């Protein structure tokens, strides 16, 4: 499979009002402990991503935190109902058994919304798409902590390849067109954290702006 055309696109400029295209946050990630915890969660029933038109191959999800109204609902609602701005958010029982993940979340001095594990299987790709309104200018931030990845996974945001590595924590502007290609023989698994972009988080993101 050839890489998406986005790999060959010219780099995009940083957008001042919308924040940087991507940023590596200077926040410690306990990667060995995260990997051990996530390895135990592999036995759970992961959910195929509901946006089937956005990917080829297998892309699945385990929700760890969801809107309060869905805590006792079907897992699909826990994993993918993200849009109601009036809702409070609660941890799910699976997060109780993950002290390292909770420790990482506790290092974020901002309100937390959705927390999910997202796994892109070997040979799969996420087609170029946008998550409209998911950027600093709209008061939202999506963070990624790679749990397992490798150099044959390519994460493209606005034409730039963002070099996310295990043990790092990244923000990217999900309102920009983005795509992922997993050319490796192993799954790529990220911890994905949606946050309210309060002044503390905005400052940390601007400090780590990729390419700045």
UniProtKB/TrEMBL annotation:
Q: Which Pfam families match?
A: Asp_Arg_Hydrox
Q: Which InterPro entries match?
A: Asp/Arg/Pro-Hydrxlase, IPNS-like_sf
Tell me the ranges covered by the Aspartyl/asparaginy/proline hydroxylase domain, including all copies.
33-196
What is the name listed in the Swiss-Prot or TrEMBL entry for this protein?
Answer: Aspartyl/asparaginyl beta-hydroxylase domain-containing protein
């Amino acid at each position: 499979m050839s890489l998406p055309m986005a790999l060959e696109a010219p780099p995009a400029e940083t957008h001042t009002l919308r924040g940087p295209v991507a940023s590596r946050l200077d926040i410690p990630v306990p990667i060995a402990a995260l990997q051990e915890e996530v390895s135990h969660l592999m036995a759970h029933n992961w959910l195929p991503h509901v946006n089937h038109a956005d990917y080829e191959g297998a892309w699945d999800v385990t929700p760890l935190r969801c809107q309060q109204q869905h805590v006792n609902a079907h897992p699909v609602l826990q994993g993918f109902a993200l849009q109601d701005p009036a809702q409070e958010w609660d941890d799910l029982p699976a997060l109780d058994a993950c002290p390292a993940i909770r420790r990482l979340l506790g290092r974020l001095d901002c309100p937390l919304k959705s927390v999910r594990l997202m796994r892109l299987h070997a040979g799969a790709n996420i087609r170029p798409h946008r998550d409209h309104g998911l950027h600093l200018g709209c008061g939202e931030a999506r963070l990624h902590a790679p749990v397992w990845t490798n150099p044959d996974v390519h994460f493209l945001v606005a034409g730039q390849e963002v070099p996310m590595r295990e043990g790092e924590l990244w923000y990217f502007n999900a309102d920009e067109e983005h795509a992922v290609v997993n050319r490796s023989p192993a799954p790529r698994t990220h911890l994905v954290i949606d946050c309210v972009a309060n002044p503390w988080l905005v400052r940390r993101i601007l400090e780590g702006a990729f390419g700045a």
